[in-house]
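Kindly review this protein for my students:
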Amino acid sequence: MADWAPIAKEYDPLKAGSIDGTDEEPHDRAIWRAMLARYVPNKGVTGDPHLTLFVARLNLQTTEEKLKEVFSRYGDIRKIRLVRDLVTGFSKGYAFIEYKEERALLKAHRDANRLVIDQHEIFVDFELERTLKGWIPRRLGGGFGGKKESGQLRFGGRDRPFRKPINLPNMKNDFYGEGSSEKRNWSREGTRDWRTRDREHERSRDKRWPERERSWAWGDSERERDSKEERSRGRERKDRDRKDRDRDRSRDRDTKKQRDDDKHR
């Protein structure tokens, strides 16, 4: 904890993938890729890295002239390099600005971050490719920042600094046998043989089995008796219904016959 700092002094992909820089195992494949990468800074890049700013999240329509107009207010600019696609020539949304003096660099680093240019809030930091030991770019699984939706956030930079680790006291837990030795050290006389306990369990189960069989048999006989009574009551209801229907038919026939006799008289 004594050497803890919110900004990484040396790039470590494993630590960069942790919110507090304490992870011991990588949690995504990109971290593995960054740990295995052997990145060499682009030797074709010229200029003083200690006087260069990295400017990102630019509007794709922002030009070098617009950047010069905005950043020249902090001091004299030596060179602006807006990174473009080699095939299409379109802007990739980030640039490098080299100042002539360190005072101008520090002022721009302090005041220009989160400045809005062409409706875009920009991000400003020092150049890290040639100044931070062990640097791995984002395309190889490293870098800083990132979007939460990607699940590959990187910490230790200006955008997402490390959070201070929480030191919890070493609490003993008797659940895992971490209590006093008096509680942990059971005597041999007090211990039980697992095989003996299994045998006792088998015996008790054998004793309970006939009782269960009797109860099941009694339950079956009860269910059979109830079923027979239900069937008997059902037959009785059907017989009553049939007798009632026959009586109604006989009454209807008698009534009809009586009407016919009255007509012929």
